[in-house]
């Protein structure tokens, strides 16, 4: 079982998710076989991270409840220089992405059902006000699907893809930065996934299909954008049938990541604290292994050529699962980081 090592010049940024006096943006490096961490910025409930496509700038979402914030930092070695901090103008922002040109930051305000659009200056800082695009919809689980609830945003080429947990939809938008405010985004299509999936995160497979984690359905769905929901493969996320171990008796899956070659996807079963590995190169996804992550509430994952890294929010630990032919073979403890909730490789 190979031990995880960073490449020369690399570090690991971790969102330490909790109250700002103790948590925030942290940077971890490996020296002489030991991991050492440093807090770069104190942040209240730092929940997700993303980086600028060309600049050494990282962005984050923070806060829970009815007020959210967004942050921008320029990373210089073991120092984070604050470029901006402001309200997301929505509740519980949980994901964000920068468009390929580096001129617009898009934020998913989960609770208030909006996409926040923040223009960026040439240095990556915030420029002008953040504007909102309201989404609408709903699904069969009224407590969680009372309205649209965007949970992830990413680009496929020039198209913005938004995973909408509340409406059981995957939305596609065109982006025209010559148009002002929310008019810069135009919805092109909304693809329904099987009802009550509650889609949370998705990855794009080599054949163009999407593999999507179902938070509400405890399922993995795989299909093509534009295809009817009935054509999507729909399989259980876990072999386990008993109650969860962390937070809830019900399994609430979270993150999904793909192997670099696209043959497998890795699926975090929060509550059960396991990582399922699916073979997705065939017609139907096949559950190959399911490993105890040895963390509590595995919130986020990061995949390298040799390992799957797992951030355990409740246990405050980061683990590494070594891979053999794309399949995890065990669990290695890397370091303890209170409230570890998001991982970003930095070089």
Automatic annotation (TrEMBL):
Pfam families per record: Lactonase
Record keywords: Carbohydrate metabolism, Glucose metabolism
GO molecular function term, any single one: 6-phosphogluconolactonase activity
InterPro entries: Cycloisomerase_2 (IPR050282), Lactonase_7-beta_prop (IPR019405), WD40/YVTN_repeat-like_dom_sf (IPR015943)
Gene Ontology biological-process entries: glucose metabolic process
Family as reported in the entry's similarity comment: Belongs to the cycloisomerase 2 family.
Protein name: 6-phosphogluconolactonase
Organism: Devosia insulae DS-56
